Amino acid sequence: MELTNNTVLITGGTSGFGYEFAARLIELGNTVIITGRNVQKLQETKQKLPVVHTIQSDVSKPGEISHLYNRVISEFPQLNILINNAGEMRKLSLHHNHDLTDLTREIEINLMGPIRMVQEFLPHLRIQKNAVILNVTSGIALMPLPIAPIYSASKSGLRWYTQALRVQLKNTRIKVIELVAPGSSTPLNEKFRNEEGFDSNRLMAPEKIVEQAIKGMKSDKDEIYPGLAKVIQIVSRIAPKFIMAQAGKMGASFMYANQ
Ligand SMILES: NC(=O)c1ccc[n+]([C@@H]2O[C@H](COP(=O)([O-])OP(=O)(O)OC[C@H]3O[C@@H](n4cnc5c(N)ncnc54)[C@H](OP(=O)(O)O)[C@@H]3O)[C@@H](O)[C@H]2O)c1
């Protein structure tokens, strides 16, 4: 698709991939609206990207999605690209007690968030001349990362949902794209830096991932696998036990403690 003169809504646009998507899509001549929960981060982003439009909205709250929809559709009726990017990743030991609501937070944000966003915006996107829904999954959708079990579940769930969505929308003008992102040097990974087995040299810069995503969008790809995500895709098929053994090494003492 032509990546100019579009109106793009990006959930979670104040850092990492969301910020890079916003900066790059503005450079290409698109109107960009970003969301996030933290007002200060939204204001700081507006200072760095003065033409970006910011709306505070928590994607894990259905009421805030409806409010976001009403506001975006009235202020930006040309909206034709939705990028479901907002996400959170926590390390979590299943040996500990957890509040049952907080336990599934990543499912609410990373999986139910995009599902509800798509449902709310679908009638609007369906009547655009051409539209895109891009969901950001992860290499962790192809193989679980045991130190982050709920995150792993959220991303594999989002991958299957995205594939089902693509089939259901095949007779519409909405293109459904999955960005299967590899590990990247964004704030999301900061809390993992001191874990054993965490190799910061393997992280790909968010700018490079977004550059590949933009290339993939321009050439109408269904799925985009930057850097190591391509390797994970191949190895998880031909040597699933090997890749699981590697994934289980990260944060081993955190996970296996108290058994
Ligand atoms: N970094 C990686 O290694 C990696 C790899 C594969 C996939 N991904 C995925 O890529 C996406 C972006 O991650 P990132 O690495 O760029 O993370 P990041 O730098 O931490 O950015 C996350 C963004 O999402 C927003 N956000 C978080 N929870 C939200 C909520 N409930 N409602 C609305 N906005 C919310 C954050 O702002 P507020 O906190 O202010 O809300 C922030 O703008 C996520 O879906 C992540 O799972 C990341």
TrEMBL record:
<dbReference type="InterPro" id="IPR002347">
    <property type="entry name" value="SDR_fam"/>
</dbReference>
<dbReference type="InterPro" id="IPR036291">
    <property type="entry name" value="NAD(P)-bd_dom_sf"/>
</dbReference>
<dbReference type="GO" id="GO:0016020">
    <property type="term" value="C:membrane"/>
</dbReference>
<protein>
    <submittedName>
        <fullName>SDR family NAD(P)-dependent oxidoreductase</fullName>
    </submittedName>
</protein>
<dbReference type="InterPro" id="IPR020904">
    <property type="entry name" value="Sc_DH/Rdtase_CS"/>
</dbReference>
<keyword id="KW-0560">Oxidoreductase</keyword>
<dbReference type="GO" id="GO:0016491">
    <property type="term" value="F:oxidoreductase activity"/>
</dbReference>
<dbReference type="Pfam" id="PF00106">
    <property type="entry name" value="adh_short"/>
</dbReference>
<comment type="similarity">
    <text>Belongs to the short-chain dehydrogenases/reductases (SDR) family.</text>
</comment>
